[in-house]
């Protein structure tokens, strides 16, 4: 259902097909992912979007981005409450850090469709609140969670090939490996300006305290630092791989084995998750933070009864760098290998899907239900680690602790 304020774009041409309403979007959170991905792509897709309002705690970030993208000073806000009160937009892209549960619910209650960066929330209670706010809107799907890899052309092609091979029931295993260098190393090429130093310490401290309280609600007050680290990694990074598992075969049935380890003195190192998929196959995830690694590298291998499918993802910050899908099968007594790659950008495909949700009510690949499944898997991982190490585990995750 179109938002009442959406208007046709004068830049659309009739020769390109039916004219689509042009959405005025507000962008809340002007960090690295906004500057390297969403804002440039919103500018690229001027046929579908117009950036009409901005929100960030940093006035310097607002002024820099506002000037670059032609957003007037009166439409630059330092709080979400100010942004929602001022209005003047049709949809909102929520790219702030930490948990987005309360803010996403506020946006939905204000009547706006929202594309929310992951993680949607740190607790299952937050997700329920967001889902309630979406239902109250009464207008079909209004929430998309930002798992752009689900919209990657290679990932979509994998789903099509797997369907031809017999679907999820033919899957024997899905094996994931992520090699993760520092974010700074991945972003060095972008030469982002230094902004944000003008945010008051008290505001940053309040946000950290809020997230700490939510993690305690999720894991209990006695959760170890290792358990908290694992929870943070799954919610902030491995959730992308969980979204792909859901797209391949549905949410994992649980986490049977979890481990987290690091070199002495390191807060973040490696983790491992293993378990069963809904159709009977198995999954294994290995994630490694490697500060000196040459480049980000992620592989997703699907082994099925007729062959194998492998996705190799580049750094997500590299626009239009193709994900490579390799299909391996048996032909004429030998091995056949074929590659598929596309320079279509996953973030752009995600934005196009967001437009379709906001205007036409097309369901997103991940909404509140999928986000809830990912939070549950993260908590199951913590419970499995706690059980293996004999550590206390409470909060929502305690529900999954093996007795």
Please give a structural write-up.
The protein has 403 residues and is α/β, with parallel strands linked by helices. The chain has two domains: 7-148, Rossmann fold (3-Layer(aba) Sandwich), CATH 3.40.50; 152-344 and 374-400, Dihydrodipicolinate Reductase, domain 2. It is 38% helix and 23% strand. It contains eleven helices and 15 strands. The chain has helices spanning 32-44, 59-69, 80-86, 101-109, 124-137, 153-164, 183-187, 201-219, 225-249, 346-360, 368-389; strands spanning 7-8, 21-28, 49-55, 76-77, 91-94, 114-117, 143-146, 171-180, 257-261, 270-276, 282-289, 297-304, 307-313, 324-331, 334-341. Strands 9-10-11-8-12-13-14-15 form an eight-stranded mixed sheet. It is globular, with a radius of gyration of 21 Å. Mean pLDDT is 92; it is low at 1-5 and 7-16.
What labels describe this entry?
eight-stranded mixed β-sheet; about 400 residues; Rossmann fold; seven-stranded mixed β-sheet; alpha/beta; single chain; 11 helices; 15 strands; Dihydrodipicolinate Reductase, domain 2
């Amino acid at each position: 259902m179109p938002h009442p304020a959406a208007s046709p774009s004068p830049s659309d041409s009739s020769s390109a097909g039916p004219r689509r309403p042009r959405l005025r979007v507000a962008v809340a959170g002007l960090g690295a992912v906004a500057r390297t991905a969403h804002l440039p792509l919103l500018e690229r897709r001027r046929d579908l979007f117009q950036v009409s309002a901005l929100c960030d705690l940093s006035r310097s970030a607002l002024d820099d981005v506002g000037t670059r993208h032609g957003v007037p000073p009166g439409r630059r806000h330092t709080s979400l409450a100010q942004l929602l009160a001022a209005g003047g937009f049709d949809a909102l892209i929520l790219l702030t850090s930490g948990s987005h549960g309360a803010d996403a619910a506020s946006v939905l209650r204000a009547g706006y469709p929202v594309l929310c960066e992951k993680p949607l929330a740190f607790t299952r209670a937050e997700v329920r609140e967001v889902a309630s706010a979406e239902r109250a809107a009464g207008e079909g799907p209004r929430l998309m969670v930002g798992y752009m890899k689900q919209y990657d052309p290679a990932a979509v092609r994998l789903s099509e090939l797997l369907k031809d091979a017999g679907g999820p029931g033919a899957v024997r295993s899905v094996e994931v490996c992520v090699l993760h260098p520092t974010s700074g190393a991945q972003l060095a090429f972008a030469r982002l300006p230094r902004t944000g130093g003008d945010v008051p310490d008290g505001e940053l401290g309040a946000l950290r305290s809020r997230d700490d309280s939510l993690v305690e609600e999720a894991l209990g007050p006695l959760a170890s630092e290792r358990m908290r680290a694992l929870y943070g990694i799954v919610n902030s990074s491995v959730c992308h791989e969980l979204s792909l598992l859901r797209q391949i075969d549905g949410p994992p049935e649980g986490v049977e084995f979890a481990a987290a380890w690091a070199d002495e003195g390191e807060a973040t190192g490696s983790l491992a998750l293993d378990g069963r998929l809904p159709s009977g196959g198995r999954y294994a995830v290995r994630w490694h933070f490697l500060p000196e690694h040459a480049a980000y590298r992620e592989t997703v291998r699907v082994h099925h009864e007729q062959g194998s499918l492998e996705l190799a993802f580049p750094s997500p910050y590299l626009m239009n760098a193709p994900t490579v899908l390799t299909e391996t099968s048996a032909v004429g007594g030998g091995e056949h290998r074929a590659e598929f790659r596309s320079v279509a950008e996953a973030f752009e495909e995600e934005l196009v899907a967001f437009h379709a949700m906001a205007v036409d009510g097309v369901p997103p690949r991940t909404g509140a239900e999928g986000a809830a499944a990912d939070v549950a898997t993260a908590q199951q991982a913590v419970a499995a680690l706690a059980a293996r190490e004999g550590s206390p585990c409470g909060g929502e995750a305690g529900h999954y602790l093996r007795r």
